[in-house]
């Protein structure tokens, strides 16, 4: 039978990339980490790590077992949470991973409602973009995740998750206040501001559908910085409604793009029923995000 502590050590080595970093994360002595790895190799009869220069790397068997270890540890953490839930909502813990514009809009109101109703429950947040939020959810490091995706332009990996569509928010063309032009094509010769390679897929495809490739001069995922760059006349961009609800620079003009939108999902991992703290948080998020302002993207 595999030892849970040794699986936790292997998962930490895979996550942090070295024995030293894993030891620091686990608050173990470095020789203790090496000992656990050696014992795990003996228990499995497989070579899990190999020397690579002055460090180590996982073998194929090591990577496979580390992936499974993340799932196993996540399930164990979930079991602890569910057992704690037997005491009801007087205690327990629930953790949420969410992207920045959700944290800047409806999440605080949902959190305030939850804390007022259930003051004994430990509520925690982590800022995470969808790929990282999915990883945290599957690893049992959070119980609830808010994710987003664009139709035909890269949706989060929802395999194995229980999820629901929370919002379908509109996308907006954002230009300096004094610039004319209400369509993407009107700005084909302007400089553009966009997010990371994954986040700009929807923008690039929308521009392609309008017959041009945007000249992306500035790259940032910070919606406050994006709007400041636009207001300064350095380019134009496309932003989802929540980003404009969270912060709307007075020096920009926004135009809703017909038929363009972003889907926001609420996701959990594991079979129902959810532990009471998780179920209560889901209810608060649904109630706040379901208000007309967020659904219309006009705050």
TrEMBL record:
Residues 2-59 form the HTH lysR-type domain. Keywords: DNA-binding, Transcription, Transcription regulation. The keyword Repressor does not apply. InterPro entries: LysR_HTH_N, LysR_subst-bd, WH-like_DNA-bd_sf, WH_DNA-bd_sf. Pfam families: HTH_1 (PF00126), LysR_substrate (PF03466). It comes from the Bacteria. Gene3D superfamilies: Periplasmic binding protein-like II, Winged helix-like DNA-binding domain superfamily/Winged helix DNA-binding domain. Belongs to the LysR transcriptional regulatory family. PANTHER family: LYSR SUBSTRATE-BINDING (PTHR30346:SF29), TRANSCRIPTIONAL DUAL REGULATOR HCAR-RELATED (PTHR30346). This is LysR family transcriptional regulator. It comes from Actinoplanes palleronii. The lineage of its organism: Bacteria, Bacillati, Actinomycetota, Actinomycetes, Micromonosporales.
């Amino acid at each position: 039978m595999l030892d849970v502590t040794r699986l936790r050590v292997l998962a930490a080595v895979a996550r942090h990339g070295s024995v030293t970093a894993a030891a620091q994360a686990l608050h173990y002595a470095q020789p203790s980490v090496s000992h656990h790895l050696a014992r795990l190799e003996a228990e499995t009869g497989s070579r899990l790590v190999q020397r690579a220069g002055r460090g180590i790397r996982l073998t194929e068997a090591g990577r496979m077992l580390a992936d499974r270890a993340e799932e196993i540890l996540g399930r164990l953490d979930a079991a602890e949470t569910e057992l704690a839930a037997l005491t009801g909502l007087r205690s327990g813990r629930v953790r949420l991973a969410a992207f920045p514009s959700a944290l800047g809009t409806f999440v605080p109101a949902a959190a305030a409602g939850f804390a007022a109703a259930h003051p004994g429950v430990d509520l925690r947040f982590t800022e995470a973009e969808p790929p990282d939020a999915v990883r945290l959810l599957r690893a049992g490091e959070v119980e609830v995740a808010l994710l987003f995706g664009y139709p035909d332009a890269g949706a989060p990996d929802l395999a194995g998750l229980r999820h629901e569509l929370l919002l379908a928010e509109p996308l907006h063309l954002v230009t300096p206040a004094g610039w004319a032009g209400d369509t993407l094509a009107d700005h084909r010769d302007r400089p553009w501001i966009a997010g990371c390679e994954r986040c700009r897929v929807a923008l690039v495809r929308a521009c392609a559908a309008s017959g041009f490739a945007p000249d992306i001069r500035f790259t940032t995922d910070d919606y406050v910085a994006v709007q400041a760059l636009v207001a300064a006349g350095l380019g134009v961009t496309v932003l989802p409604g929540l980003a404009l609800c969270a912060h709307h620079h007075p020096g920009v003009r926004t135009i809703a793009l017909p038929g363009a939108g972003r889907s926001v999902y609420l996701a959990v991992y594991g079979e129902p029923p959810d532990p009471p703290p998780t179920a209560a948080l889901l209810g608060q998020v649904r109630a706040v995000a379901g208000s007309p302002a967020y659904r219309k993207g006009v705050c």
